[in-house]
TrEMBL record, chain A:
This is DUF2178 domain-containing protein. The chain crosses the membrane at residues 47-67, 101-122, 128-147. Keywords: Membrane, Transmembrane, Transmembrane helix. The keyword Transmembrane helix applies. It comes from Sporolactobacillus mangiferae.
Automatic annotation (TrEMBL), chain B:
Signal peptide: none annotated. This is Helix-turn-helix transcriptional regulator. The lineage of its organism: Bacteria, Bacillati, Bacillota, Bacilli, Bacillales. The keyword DNA-binding applies. Residues 7-61 form the HTH cro/C1-type domain. Pfam families: HTH_3 (PF01381). It comes from Sporolactobacillus mangiferae. Keywords: DNA-binding. PANTHER family: TRACRIPTIONAL REGULATORY PROTEIN-RELATED-RELATED (PTHR46558), TRANSCRIPTIONAL REGULATOR, PBSX FAMILY (PTHR46558:SF6). PROSITE patterns: HTH_CROC1.
Amino acid sequence: MKRLIFSFIMSVSMIVAFGAALIPCIQIAEGFASFIRSPHQFYVEVNLLPVVPLVILSLIEAVDYYLGRRKGRPSFWQYPLIIPAADERERAISAQATATAFRAIWFIAPFCAALMVLHPIVRQSIPAFPVFVLLIIPLVQICVYYFKIRKIYL
Amino acid sequence: MHLRNHVKELRARHDWTQAQLGARVGVTRQTIASIEKGDYVPSLLLGLQICNVFDLTMEEVFILEKREEQG
């Protein structure tokens, strides 16, 4: 169970950190876009602070992967997909969790598409809005999958 | 229909832990716990394996109970 909680925290944190790390990329892309529009001036201001959480999490994952490899343990994102299928009950719970996570797309994808309607309004204040909206889909899927898969340990 | 079982009593009689019984039939401790509580209905193969380790017939370990449909 401890490993599952660690895996869940790492998976969710990685997605959030990845979304944050894309903010500087968007700033660079905006700089290039303005350069294309007016080639005489090129000015890009990038704040690299949002990349720091991703770097820290990557280091944690690298250490965990190195230690886990020696013990023959898979990395955190493979863990809930591979390990909890030790017997028929775990396979049944995994199958149910997978189906529920898949069904979650039916609700969350239209919701995210509807959220994109707000993009023209928030474009100036939140340039990374489409990235955040897109990352809601795996975030919800991960939450649903882990919530269902935890039954294995109950 | 509800499947009741005597796995807990039989396991206690043999003085086995859930983990020990699980190891004998090739499942985890949690699966044995779920079967004992009635939360999980084992497959025919697992049911027969459990009967086999206790050296009993299916009827002596598992009991099919008819329940009144609610509503």
